[in-house]
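Design job #97: recover the sequence.
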C-alpha cells in the first residue's frame, strides 16, 4: 500500500498522510491516467478496473481524491460535483473539457459536461494508458 496526502473530503482542506487501501490506490491510478480535457464516470472507472462499482469509486474519490485530478471522475449525467461546481468548472475551462450550455431552468445556470465528447474510453489519447492495456475492462 502507498501513502497519499489526503484531505478526507476528496477536494480540499488540511492534508494528512495515511495508508491507502489497495482498491483506493487503483482508483486513484486510473484518475491520474485520464487526459486533461477528458472525463470518466464513476462507473467507467469501476468497469475499467473490473472491480467494484460506481458507489465504491465515488467513496474513494470523496475520501482520497484530493491528491489526483478529481474533476475528471464524474457523474454519468454530466452534472458538476455538488459543492465543488465552480472549482471543477475552472478546471474544465482551463483544460478545454467539452461543456453543454446550461438551460434557463438549470439550477444556478451551470453548464454540464458534454459526455459524448468529453468521455474517455480508457485507451485512446492517454499518456500512460498503454501500460495498463489488458488490465481491466476498457470502455
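Job complete. Output follows.
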Amino acid at each position: 500500500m502507498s501513502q497519499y496526502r489526503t484531505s478526507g473530503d476528496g477536494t480540499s482542506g488540511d492534508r494528512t498522510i495515511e495508508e491507502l487501501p489497495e482498491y483506493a490506490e487503483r482508483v486513484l491510478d486510473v484518475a491520474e491516467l485520464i487526459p486533461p480535457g477528458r472525463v470518466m464516470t464513476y462507473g467507467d472507472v469501476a468497469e475499467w478496473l473490473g472491480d467494484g462499482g460506481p458507489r465504491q469509486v465515488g467513496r474513494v474519490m470523496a475520501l482520497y481524491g484530493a491528491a489526483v485530478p478529481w474533476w475528471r471522475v464524474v457523474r454519468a449525467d454530466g452534472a458538476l460535483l455538488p459543492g465543488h461546481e465552480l472549482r471543477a468548472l475552472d478546471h474544465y475551462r482551463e483544460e478545454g473539457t467539452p461543456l453543454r450550455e446550461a438551460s434557463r431552468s438549470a439550477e444556478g445556470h451551470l453548464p454540464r459536461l458534454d459526455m459524448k465528447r468529453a468521455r474517455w474510453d480508457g485507451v485512446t489519447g492517454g499518456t500512460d494508458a498503454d501500460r495498463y492495456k489488458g488490465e481491466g475492462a476498457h470502455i
